[in-house]
Amino acid sequence: MGSSGRSSFGEGGRSGGSGSGARGAGGRSSSRRRGGDAAEEGGPPDDPVAVARGICLRALTGAPKTRQQLAELLARKEIPEDAAATVLDRLTEVGLIDDEAFAEAWVSSRQSGRGLARRALTSELRAKGVDGEVAAQAVAVVDDEDERASARELVRRRARSMQRLDQATATRRLMGMLARKGYSGGMAASVVREVLGEAADAELYPDAD
């Protein structure tokens, strides 16, 4: 963890506001708005590092975030890049930003809860700014058997609501559902055929092969 020589997030930001440069109603309004925003974010006016810290800590209270997610949030709040980098580096240093841990937790949650395949999991992680190598390492814990088991469970659950459909329509809809969750066409076809075959044995789809 970081230590000597760096005060946490650096309290030495710019101090005070300029007096004569803020003349006029528009200047005073803008100055008051920035000061109010800074106070709401937990930092003094004109201290972008403290403001950025407050923004990030509140965002992390709700749920873990990747570094990119927080960087995008700070950019939307118009935090200067150097102040944003200072805060993001410090939060990474103390472990409050950890893209590897985020990726591992995301894969565990989305694979077991939503039944997503590796391709969909990888796509989601990359969209959240997780490095490709980190994403691949996190997704590697899901193997072919895990994917097949998840796909079978998804199809079994969905097939119960399709008992009145003909086999061709049910097959098309079930394969579409698996495709949206990232499963390959080959695995989707195999799993749907297998589950509908079991359903046929249970007389849910008498015409299934």
Automatic annotation (TrEMBL):
Show where the RecX second three-helical domain sits. Answer: 98-138
Main location group: cytoplasm
Please list the residue ranges that the record marks as compositionally biased, kind Gly residues.
10-27
Task: State the name under which the record lists this protein.
Answer: Regulatory protein RecX
Signal sequence span is none
UniProt KW keywords = Cytoplasm
Which species is this UniProt entry from? Answer: Goekera deserti
* UniProt-listed Pfam families: RecX_HTH1, RecX_HTH2, RecX_HTH3
Source organism superkingdom: Bacteria
Is GTP-binding included in the keywords of this UniProt record? no
**A biological process term (GO) from this entry:** regulation of DNA repair
Q: What does this protein do?
A: Modulates RecA activity.
Q: Where in the cell is it found?
A: Cytoplasm
Q: Where is the RecX third three-helical domain?
A: 146-191
Looking at the record, the residues that make up the RecX first three-helical domain are 52-91
Task: Spell out the GO cellular component terms annotated for this protein, sorted alphabetically and separated by semicolons.
Answer: cytoplasm
Show the segment(s) annotated as Disordered.
1-50
Name the family: Belongs to the RecX family.
